[in-house]
Amino acid sequence: MQFSHLSVAAVLALVAGLVYAAPTESDGELFISKIIPMGEYNLTIWSDVPGTTPANAFDVRAPVPCSGNNDVTCSGSHQANSGICNQLVNQLNSNSGVVIGDSPRSICLGQSGNQCCVSWSAAVGSMPQGDLFNAAKKIFSTCFGDNISGLARNVNLNGGCVTECLSNRATGCS
Ligand SMILES: *[C@@H]1O[C@H](CO)[C@@H](O)[C@H](O)[C@H]1NC(C)=O
Ligand SMILES: *[C@@H]1O[C@H](CO)[C@@H](O)[C@H](O)[C@H]1NC(C)=O
User: Fold this and answer.
1) Within-domain flag for 172
2) Which of 6, 34, 83, 92 is the most buried (most CB within 10 A)?
């Protein structure tokens, strides 16, 4: 319940911000574009606020052309519960054909204070969820423990070359 109140407040704050203030490069540039109930949790899609300059909050963009190697580095920061991450990665696979739109930047599963998110360093347009699976699965397997945080560089995502991240927040892992 707390999560939904926070979310509504966050969205309202962002809408107000768009009207009254110049956007700043902060976590606040993302807004919730969709919430899909999934079992005991919600699946939340975060997107860039239209008209803002996307923040590269967690890594520089990988060089182009993209190797597509999904080079994984694990992190001790912003770790998420591995059980929830497992569910998130599995649902990317089982719902692989479901297209996510609205300039998406991250997908989170969970609830307030206990969530796992897959995020990526730049908007690459609408894409099927399944495009996120290979790198997310590789981070999950490589960094596996009670808690997980990690990123994959040189990820070929919908024609873009991005860093993809698995962590406890919508805005990246490091
Ligand atoms: C899921 O989202 C709905 C709508 O915002 C909210 O009412 C519900 O409490 C959320 N559930 C969880 C587990 O966060
Ligand atoms: C995993 O995270 C939980 C909750 O923050 C914490 O209690 C636990 O000690 C962590 N486990 C490890 C091995 O870091």
Assistant:
1) no
2) 92
